[in-house]
Specification:
Chain lengths: ~160, ~210
C-alpha cells in the first residue's frame, strides 16, 4: 500500500531533519542572553553577538560524537531502506534498515542522557530547543526502527 | 637554516655598517610543560668568530608579574655555575655544549611558581655585542585535550566497527555460498540473484505491515 510506504518514509525524513537540527544548532542550554553547547557558546552583549568555541571537556565531546553518529546512522538507514525496497526478496524483512535506525535512536538516547547528567547546575540556565529536539527524536526513531522490524515486503 | 642565518647576518651588516660583527642568540618563543615534569630550555647563538674558550652563557629569570630579574645560571671559563640560593636551587642542570654553541639548561620538577620569562645571554669574545633572547615558560596542571580528539575517536571507532561487522557478514555469506562452510541459511535471506530481475515498469514496490506473531 502506497500510503504505508509514504508514511514510513515521511516519518524517517522527519527524524533525520530533527536529528540534523538538534546536532547542528548550538542551543542545548540557554540562559538569559547566552546560548551554549554543543559547538559554540554565544552571548549577546550590549556590544553585539559574540561566540567562542564550546569547552573541550570530555563529556561534551562525547555528546558531539554520539549526535553525529546518530545522524549518520539515520542517514545510512534511509539509504538501506531505499536499497532494500528494490532489492529485497519477497517476504523479506528490512533488517539492516531497522538495525541502523535502532542504533541511531540508542545513540541519541546516550547523547541526551550524558548531556542531562553532566551539564553544570545553574539556576539561570535552562535547556534549549536543540536539547528538546534530541529527546523528541529518540522515541520517534525507536518507533520507526520497530516499524521496520515488523515491515515485510509483500509476497 | 644556514641561509636564514646568512641572510640575517647580511641584514644586520646592512643596518649597522660600523659594527661588522654581532652575536645573534636563539631561544624558543614559548614553552609549555606540566607540573612536576622537567623541561629543557634551549639557547644557541651565531657568531662570525670561532667559538673562543672564553665563551659565556647567562640565564636570568623574571617571574610573571614581577619587574625584577634574578640571575640563575652562568657559564664561564669552562665551568658552569648553577643557582644555589634562589628559586631553582637543586633543580637546575647545565645540559649544553659550549664548544657547539649550545647553552641549554634543564629545569627539573616544575612548579606553578616557575611561570615566567627566561632570558639567555651569550658572549663570544671579542664578539660581545648582541641582544639577549627570551623564552616564556607556561606551566599547566594538566594538558588540556584538544577539541575534537575524543569526538573523532568515538566516531572513528564506531564506524570502523560497523565496516568490520558488515565485511565479516558478507564474507561469511560469500563463504557459505561457496560451500566452504555448511551453515543452514535462514529463509529470510537478503538478496537472491533471481529475485532482483523484476523491474520492468516502475510501480512502487508493495510493502505491508504484518501483525507481530
Amino acid at each position: 500500500m502506497l500510503l504505508i510506504l509514504l508514511g514510513v518514509l515521511v516519518l524517517h525524513l522527519i527524524i533525520l531533519i530533527l536529528l540534523i537540527v538538534s546536532t547542528a544548532a548550538s542551543a542545548w542550554s540557554v540562559g538569559g542572553e547566552r546560548t551554549t553547547d554543543l559547538w559554540y557558546n554565544c552571548m549577546t552583549n550590549n556590544g553585539g553577538y559574540h561566540c567562542k568555541p564550546a569547552s573541550n571537556e570530555d563529556w561534551i565531546q562525547a555528546v558531539q560524537a554520539l549526535m553525529i553518529l546518530s545522524v549518520l546512522f539515520c542517514f545510512f538507514s534511509l539509504i538501506a531502506f531505499v536499497y532494500q525496497l528494490f532489492r529485497l526478496v519477497k517476504g523479506g524483512r528490512f533488517f539492516f534498515t531497522a538495525i541502523f535506525q535502532i542504533l541511531a535512536s540508542v545513540f541519541v538516547m546516550c547523547g541526551a542522557i550524558i548531556y542531562t547528567v553532566m551539564s553544570p547546575d545553574d539556576w539561570r540556565v535552562e535547556f534549549g530547543y536543540a536539547y528538546i529536539l534530541a529527546w523528541v527524536a529518540f522515541p520517534l526513531s525507536l518507533i520507526s526502527g520497530l516499524i521496520y522490524i515488523v515491515l515485510r515486503k509483500k509476497e | 637554516m644556514l641561509t636564514v642565518l646568512a641572510l640575517m647576518s647580511v641584514a644586520l651588516l646592512g643596518i649597522v655598517p660600523e659594527q661588522t660583527e654581532a652575536i645573534v642568540i636563539y631561544t624558543g618563543w614559548e614553552r609549555h610543560a606540566l607540573v612536576g615534569s622537567d623541561i629543557r630550555l634551549a639557547c644557541s647563538f651565531f657568531s662570525w668568530r670561532w667559538t673562543s674558550e672564553d665563551v659565556t652563557f647567562s640565564w636570568t629569570y623574571r617571574p610573571d608579574g614581577s619587574r625584577d630579574s634574578i640571575s640563575i645560571f652562568h657559564y664561564t671559563g669552562g665551568a658552569a655555575y648553577v643557582d644555589n640560593k634562589g628559586p631553582f636551587m637543586d633543580r637546575l642542570e647545565f645540559v649544553g655544549n659550549p664548544s657547539r654553541r649550545d647553552g641549554s639548561i634543564l629545569i627539573k620538577n616544575l612548579e606553578f611558581s616557575d611561570n615566567g620569562t627566561f632570558t639567555c645571554d651569550a658572549k663570544n669574545p671579542p664578539d660581545i655585542v648582541g641582544r639577549p633572547s627570551s623564552v616564556r615558560l607556561l606551566v599547566f596542571e594538566k594538558v588540556p585535550i584538544q577539541a575534537g580528539v575524543i569526538t573523532g575517536a568515538i566516531i572513528g571507532v564506531v564506524l570502523g566497527l560497523l565496516i568490520l561487522i558488515v565485511a565479516i557478514y558478507y564474507l561469511m555469506r560469500f563463504l557459505v555460498a561457496r560451500r566452504v562452510f555448511s551453515i543452514n541459511v535462514s529463509k529470510h535471506g537478503k538478496k537472491k540473484k533471481e529475485g532482483s530481475q523484476q523491474k520492468q515498469l516502475w510501480t512502487p514496490p508493495p510493502v505491508t505491515l504484518y501483525p507481530l506473531p
